[in-house]
């Protein structure tokens, strides 16, 4: 039974994206992994199906064509559950392509949470149409720096006030869509003497003098998603483009709130990778024999798959709980970290066990299990490493940061 059997809208979206993953994503996954190229044609097709780059700002309307619960902020929503259901399905096709389709959501998330109506309109305007290569336009969220990944309190990028503008200087690294983005949400300190409280997000359009997209990184997995450096060299941005205008800002804390809404989706992508490897194994085991006996009759093999199924079901339940809490306006900090960390752990465990079961054939470059194994590792690193998630969980239990 589908986890969404009592919610036809969510079940329908999940079914549609599952079919899209199998029919459109999976056949091109190995090519884009090998070439480390973004699947621009498929991204355009996905946009046509409602997977728009502004989906997070537009809300549920993007995929279903309907506005959700307008006028009643307290009513439960379904956007977070839509996000996790869709993320699992797309990553089942290919995690890198899933991120290529949905990576703009990282930038859209703070715009949706902290942007004024004008900033949301500007974000939509900058993502309209196609670029000079005929590609759809994408967005990037630039927080990490060469010396600042987990410990974002060490942010060195500054935004110096200058009349009606801020002047941004600094270097960002490991930025999804960093080389191609039409718009960036960049995090910088407006008042280094205030420390964490001075950190703000800014909307910066491609082509703004002083914004220099940098080197594209080569990486182990999710290679269909672009990751690059971005440099800011005296980049002047109007003060109206600072996020959080007219709201009480928690400075650096604003970036953490943004991650609470994206972490369940990242956990769901990891579940998608694990399920891809699991389904591949089930098919192989059903069709195979060892010493004349069907493989499925061998306890050693069958127990391995039973163990994987337990882990995958548990990880999926956790990401859905974290998303359900977000949809019901409940504080999900602990659950978002649990879901993300456990999803990453399961993806690594299942793909690693799958490699062991299949043996040397799965070590061949281009073998699907070899690719899923590489893709899975990144889920333990980005959006907060496994250790950082454990710190958040421990702090929520004991009220102190473990040292
Ligand atoms: C594919 C990819 C895409 C990315 N996309 C983006 C993006 O779009 N935007 C963006 O801003 N960033 C992005 N990142 C950056 C990502 O968020 C960082 O890589 C991540 O936060 C980890 O930072 P780091 O790599 O500098 O590792 P470090 O912070 O240097 O950590 C190194 C090791 O030390 C451990 N560690 C660090 N601090 C502690 C602690 N206090 N307690 C225990 N252990 C600790 C970590 O867990 C890790 O094992 C991306 C990264 C990747 C790989």
Present as ligands are:
flavin-adenine dinucleotide
Q: What is the count of helical runs?
A: 13
Strand order of the largest sheet: 2-3-7-6
- Spatial shape: globular
What top-tier CATH class of the largest domain fits best? Answer: Mainly Alpha
Total tally of structural domains: 3
Q: What is the element string, with H for helices and E for strands?
A: HHHHHHHHEEEEEEEHEEHHHH
User: How many whole angstroms does the radius of gyration measure?
Assistant: 21 Å
In CATH, the architecture of the largest domain is Up-down Bundle
Characterization of the model:
The protein has 403 residues and is of the alpha+beta class. The chain folds into three domains: 106 residues, Acyl-CoA dehydrogenase/oxidase, N-terminal domain (Butyryl-Coa Dehydrogenase, subunit A, domain 1); 103 residues, Beta Barrel (Butyryl-CoA Dehydrogenase, subunit A, domain 2), CATH 2.40.110; 146 residues, Butyryl-CoA Dehydrogenase, subunit A, domain 3, CATH 1.20.140.10. It contains 13 helices and nine strands. Strand 8 and strand 9 form a beta hairpin. The longest helix is centred in the C-terminal third of the chain and has 35 residues. The model has no long low-confidence stretch (mean pLDDT 93). The structure holds flavin-adenine dinucleotide.
């Amino acid at each position: 039974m589908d986890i969404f059997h009592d919610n036809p809208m969510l079940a329908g979206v999940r079914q549609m994206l599952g079919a899209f993953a199998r029919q459109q994503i999976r056949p091109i996954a190995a090519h884009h992994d090998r070439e480390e190229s973004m699947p621009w044609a498929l991204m355009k097709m996905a946009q046509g199906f409602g997977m728009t780059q502004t989906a997070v700002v537009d809300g549920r309307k993007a995929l279903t064509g309907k506005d959700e619960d307008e006028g009643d902020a307290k009513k439960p929503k379904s956007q977070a559950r839509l996000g996790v259901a869709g993320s699992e399905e797309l990553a089942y096709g290919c995690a890198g392509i899933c991120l290529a389709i949905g990576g703009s959501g990282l930038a859209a998330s703070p715009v949706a949470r902290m942007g004024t109506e004008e900033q949301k309109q500007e974000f939509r305007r900058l993502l309209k149409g196609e670029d000079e290569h005929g590609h759809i336009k994408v967005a990037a969220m630039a927080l990490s720096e060469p010396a600042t990944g987990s410990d974002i309190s060490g942010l060195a990028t500054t935004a110096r006030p200058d009349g009606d503008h801020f002047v941004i200087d600094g270097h960002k690294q490991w930025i999804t869509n960093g080389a191609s983005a039409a718009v960036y949400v960049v995090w910088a300190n407006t008042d280094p003497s205030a420390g964490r409280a001075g950190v703000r997000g800014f909307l910066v359009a491609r082509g703004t003098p002083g914004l220099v997209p940098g080197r594209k990184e080569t990486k182990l997995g999710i290679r269909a998603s672009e990751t690059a450096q971005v440099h800011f060299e005296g980049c002047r941005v109007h003060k109206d483009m600072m996020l959080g205008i007219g709201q009480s800002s928690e400075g650096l804390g604003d970036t953490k709130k943004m991650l609470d809404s994206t972490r369940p989706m990242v956990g769901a992508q990891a579940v998608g990778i694990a399920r891809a490897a699991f389904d591949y194994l089930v098919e192989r085991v059903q069709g195979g024999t060892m010493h004349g006996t069907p493989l499925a009759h061998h306890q050693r093999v069958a127990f391995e798959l039973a163990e994987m199924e337990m882990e995958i079901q548990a990880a999926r339940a956790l990401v859905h709980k974290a998303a359900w809490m977000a949809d019901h306006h409940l504080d999900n900090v602990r659950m978002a970290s649990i879901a993300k960390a456990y999803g990453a752990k399961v993806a690594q465990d299942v793909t690693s066990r799958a490699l062991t079961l299949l043996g040397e054939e799965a070590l061949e470059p281009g073998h699907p299990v070899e690719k899923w194994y590489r893709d899975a590792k990144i889920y333990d690193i980005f959006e907060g490493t496994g250790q950082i998630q454990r710190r958040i969980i421990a702090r929520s239990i004991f009220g102190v940061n473990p040292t």
